[in-house]
Amino acid sequence: MVLLELKHLVKAFGGLKAVNDVSFQVEKGEIFGLIGPNGSGKTTIFNCINNFFPITAGDVLFKGRSIGGLKTYKVCHLGIGRTFQVVKPLARLSVMDNVIASAFCRVNTIKEAEAQAERILDFTNLTGEASKPAKSLPIAGRKRLEIARALATRPDLLLLDETAAGLNPSELDEAIGLIKKIRDSGITILIVEHIMKVIMTISDRIHAINFGQTIAEGTPRQVANNQAVIEAYLGEEYAHS
Amino acid sequence: MKNKKIGLTVLGIIAIVFPLVIRSDYYLHLLIIALMWVVIGSSWNLLAGYTGQVSFGHAIFFGTGAYTAGILAAKLGISAWWGLVFGGVVSMLVALFVGWVCFRLRGPYFALATLAGGEIIRLVATNWESLTEGMVGILIIQSFRSKLPYYYIALFLAIFCIYAIAIVMKTKWGYYFVSVREDQDAAESLGINTALYKNVSLLISAFFTGSAGAFYMNYMAFIDPQVVFSLHYISIMAILVGIVGGVATIWGPAVGAFIMVGVQETFRSSFFGVAPKWVSQGHALVFGLLVIFVIMFMANGVVGDWSKIRRAIFRKKTSRYKGEEYGTP
Questions:
Q1: What confidence tens digit (pLDDT) does each residue in A153-168 have?
Q2: What stretches in chain B show pLDDT beneath 70?
Q3: Using the beta-carbon criterion (under 8 Å), do B328 and A105 form an inter-chain contact?
Q4: What is the pLDDT, as a whole number, of residue A206?
Q5: Which CATH class is domain A2-86+155-239?
Q6: Closest by Cα among B165, B258, B247, B260 to B208
């Protein structure tokens, strides 16, 4: 079953087409990787999916329904959670309160929200930091908090924007483990990532873009061996050697 | 927790008994004014401290409440006390419009828009003479000759306002307010309708401020636009009360209100007649210095930085300063 579908998505900033005619489908239950060099439009695609930016042309379908013009918070209520590349914790609130605030997306009483937050902190291994202010967390913790908050909104689809960037090797393994655990709990994941170790090991399928346009799609192995992808990442002179 | 309950009970008893023991109209007047500022400061704090939308125009709601009560009494012959409710409601209607216009802007631009809004409504009230009597002002007849009833009404308003805000801050709304303050974009992506909740916060804030305005009308029996829509006597004073007491704390504005009314009166009366007369001219200067001092040395206000202050005074080594409780609902 197709959970998310991008149909000829175009996002232009003035004359610059940051995303130019990108189409792909994310199947329910898979981890779908989105890769591309810096500035190729990955985060812009995320911002179009949850409507931070209005899309210029094309459409985004979620569970078969067009979500092109919906407000950001409504997209969240429909079941799309997202994390930010540049983490946006509610800095002066405690980790617990951060997650409680997100949990209110689905529940109305403080008791239910607290119970849900506790479960999610446990799931993301943040229970130990629950009472610390979010701004006191190191980067790895903040990235996990981003995930925890997104999970607290009980999404069907989770958009992960470079959640592994800036982590050290052992933290990377933890992050990979967490992402797999989330997938196993039944949540579909669309992930943007630069670190090949992460994207290649966890993705079921990968979609590669450059300058806002699709250059390849397939299994991690297919994409890794694709000429256009190698060109985009290493430059033309390395592509044929 | 238990200490807190005992403390509140003691405070409550003192508040109820105080005017029966100290029978001085002068001190009672100061207390009534301070209690009114507790209401205004607390509601300003809900919007600015908790929700992060700093308003420079709370005189809009104060004045609207006061004029609603005044016009009810002077033109329609309905008791001005109804203004406590209707003043709040009319202020909410005005707030709907203010929010519709000003919430298109963020941060300092929002603050400037509310500042402009306050000046606009003051000029409208000055010139719309058929409704407001303009600079002539509105005069009504006081309901009570004694100050005691006013004291208890103001006390009730203040307690009700603080209690209501404390309750709201423990619910979904409260969490949403602080989320909006911390990061609007993150809040939006977490499913929070930021536009809606900013307006909810503004409406609650406007209701209580309007109610306080209506109380002022009843108590002072005379209003004119220069007083109730005043930028520096109302809008700025609301900010000072909040900042000095401590933004984003439940009790901050209450403490701030008593401090600010105390400082204001001390200087207005030239230290109760002890100092030379020219000292009374200096109260604006002292306000300014006080704010600079608070911002530099205790940015979370008296309540927010209380443990810091206690350490400074008693030089206690054992620190119970948590310091990070800022705005936690």
A1: 999 999 999 888 888 8
A2: 1, 315-329
A3: no
A4: 93
A5: alpha beta
A6: B165
As a whole number of Å, the end-to-end CA separation of chain A is: 40
Average pLDDT over residues A224-237: 83
The count of domains in chain B is: 1
The two tokens of residue A41 are: 């439009």
- Is B22 a domain residue? yes
Nearest CA in chain B to A112: B172
Q: Three-state SS for A94?
A: strand
The verdict on residue B309 lying in a domain is no
Instruction: Tell me whether residue B240 is in a domain.
Output: no
Contact flag A76-B186 (C-beta cutoff 8 Å):
no
Q: Where are the domains of chain A?
A: 2-86+155-239
The verdict on B183 touching A (C-beta cutoff 8 Å) is yes
A88, A133, A136: residue with CB nearest B185:
A88
The one-letter code for the residue type at B21 is: V
> Tell me: the pLDDT tens digits for A9-47?
999 998 888 999 999 999 999 999 999 888 888 889 999
- From residue B64, give the alpha-carbon distance in Å to each of A131, A162, B84, B120: 42, 50, 11, 13
Any A CB within 8 A of B199 CB = no
What are A79-132's pLDDT values in tens digits?
999 998 888 888 888 999 999 999 999 999 999 999 999 999 999 999 998 899
Residue B81 forms part of a structural domain: yes
Residue ranges of alpha helices (H) inside B137-280 are 148-168, 172-182, 184-189, 194-220, 225-228, 236-245, 252-268
Judge: A93–B328 Cβ closer than 8 Å, yes or no. Answer: yes
Tell me the percentage of chain A whose pLDDT exceeds 90: 56
The whole-number pLDDT of residue A230 equals: 87
Would you state the structure tokens that stand for residue B9, as one six-digit string? Answer: 């009970």
Residue A229 near residue A223, CB atoms below 8 Å: yes
Contact B228, B67 (CB under 8 A): yes
Secondary structure letter of residue B232 according to DSSP: I
- B185 chain-A contacts, CB cut-off 8 A: 52, 84, 88
Number of H-type helices and E-type strands within chain A: 10, 10
B135 Cβ contact partners less than 8 Å away, ≥ 6 residues apart = B126, B224, B225, B226
Q: Could you read off the pLDDT of B282-295 as tens digits, one per residue? A: 777 888 888 888 88
CA distance A150 to chain B (A): 7
**Which residue range(s) make up the domain with B52?**
2-231
- Residue A240's pLDDT is what? 61
| Amino acid B329: pLDDT | 47
- Cβ–Cβ < 8 Å for A22, A9: yes
